[in-house]
Amino acid sequence: MIPSTYDGPSNGDYVAYVDKLLRASPDFRRTQSSIAGAVQSATSTPGAQADSPMGQLREKLQKARELAEQAERKNMKAATPSRAAQRQPASIGSTGQAPSKEEAKQRFRAMEREIEEQKARANIRKSTPWISPFSVVMIVAGVVISQFVSGFGTMLAIMGLLSLVGGVANKLKGK
């Protein structure tokens, strides 16, 4: 006879039964509280994470663009047709004046060049070799292992060869 200590689901509700068992587990409660804490900290401090270098450059670029627009607005407001020729461009320095339109454009171009240089350096770092060292290792290991376990070694060598062909094909496609 089956012992009567079996505490199964009532009315066949297995989902509620499993949920009740999970909630009784200390691991489940600990995991739930850590998830709740992470969600709470993420929602209470949005944007508190550090920016990437590209994000910082974008901010600098935006500031330079704003400076250029402010300088242009000041030039439009302050300059009259008779005094426009007499005005000389102001520069930021010890005087504390706003930059002229040309200086702002030059700074803007310098920041754009810096961003382009960083993109070029990032693309150089991302370059991948035509032949993956992993594929070569798989082929060599497959050939060596096939001397002892022919089926496994042959499969390993074939997988390495397919990986090698796939890498070369992706390189030719430009991926």
Structure overview:
With 175 residues, the chain is mainly alpha-helical. The chain has six helices and no strands. It is flat, with a radius of gyration of 33 Å. The termini are far apart. Residues 80-94 have low confidence and may be disordered. Helix 3 (53-78) runs antiparallel to helix 4 (101-125). The protein is 68% helix and 0% strand.
Enumerate the spans where pLDDT stays under 50 for 5 or more consecutive residues. Answer: 80-94
Task: Quote the average pLDDT.
Answer: 75
The number of strands is: 0
- Decide which structural class fits the backbone: mainly alpha
Q: What multimeric state do the chains show?
A: single chain
Helix percentage: 55-70%
Q: In angstroms, what is the radius of gyration?
A: 33 Å
Head-to-tail CA distance between termini: 67 Å
Largest sheet: none
Specify the number of helices: 6
Estimate the strand proportion: under 5%
The shape, in one word, is flat
Order of helices and strands: HHHHHH
In a nutshell, what does this entry contain?
It is built from six helices and no strands.
Helix and strand topology:
Elements lengths: L13 H11 L1 H19 L8 H26 L22 H25 L7 H14 L3 H24 L2
Describe the structure using short key phrases.
175 residues, mainly alpha
